[in-house]
Task: structure prediction
Amino acid sequence: MDKRTITSKLLIFLVFIFGYVSSQSMTRSRKNKINNVDKFGLSIFPKAFSADSIKIFTLLEIPLYSVQFIKKNKKFVASYNLSLSLQDDAGKEVGSTVWSDSVIVDSYKETKSILKNKKYFYNFKIAKKKYKIVAELLDNDTRKRGNRQFKFDYSNFKKSPNILEPYFLFREISNWNFGKTNIPSYGKRVKNLGDSLGICLSGFTKKGKYDILVEINYQNEESTIDTISEISESDFFQKIITFESRRFNLVNNKIRIKLIQGKRTKSKEIILSIYKPGVSMFVYDIDLGIKQMRYLLKGDKRKMFKGRNKSEREELFYQFWKSKDPTPDTKENELMEEYFYRVAYSNENFNSWGQGWETDMGMIYILFGPPDEVQRSNPTSSSQTTYQVWTYYNLNKQFMFKDLNGFGDYRLDSPFIGSNF
Result:
């Protein structure tokens, strides 16, 4: 590899680092514009309750940063109203509940916490039909409203066998009574996994023998299969299967569950995503993350992942970013977080012929961050080309993108030195 090539590749990484540093104030201002009252969580966990009914355990999570706090007598207080409505396919309300509540904390720092939240639970019993759950959060100080909706359709569950969405338990792993001390989860970015976990399975069968197959990390060289045989004395089943946590040793553990009775098979898939210090919150699949690093990985660095198994690729991925961590004494790797935030932003905003991170706009955004100025053309006729010009004043760089086919597929007008990866 000649000196010129080495210099150009080093330049790309240094430019990204510079863009990361210079974009931090812009990143903060971007986040401040978000309407936080919309950022509460709504999750539903179904469970077969009888041969023709399903119980829906509903979980609402209100992060402290999503509501407005007022200082009162050296404390910080936020008050809000929360409503939950179950509607049938025609829009008629068939169940509802409301909460009027407040939160008191000691410090301003706690009011901005993205980790602390308040949880609310409610159960609905439904038939095998179509429904919609609507949740609304009203901040009593700002009078702003946030909304969440969740549609689900169980009208095709009238035939057996059939299996509902699986989910996890990490505390009371054999207890179907969900609540404050026993909250189910869909397994996203799980911390402190413990020695074992439970997978909650329920659904509908005919009376008699049926089998459950659980494939952990299927389509992987480290896959395993467990088979559980049962005899049903009714037309529905509820079962929690316990596993040792050490079997889920990847960042992204793909699990496929098959329900087999007679000649019929129904399957569901779920992913257990494990939080690992030093790995970005935007990375859910290490192999995809490695592909998305192509703007940084060159030559030997890219080849080092080839011929490795899944665990080895994860370790190499982790070590690469650890070596680039600007604050190695902390748990967060800010450079990695920023890089994959830009990948996620590109996927959300620059999709055309492929994923956003693969486009020309995605490449420039990932390497240089948000532009200081964007100029857009306003064509007066269909024959004129639409274009955008991105300007980076601090870097003394400007990029022109043209939409040559009229479908939003913006391409760089001139080749970029770092585009041939």
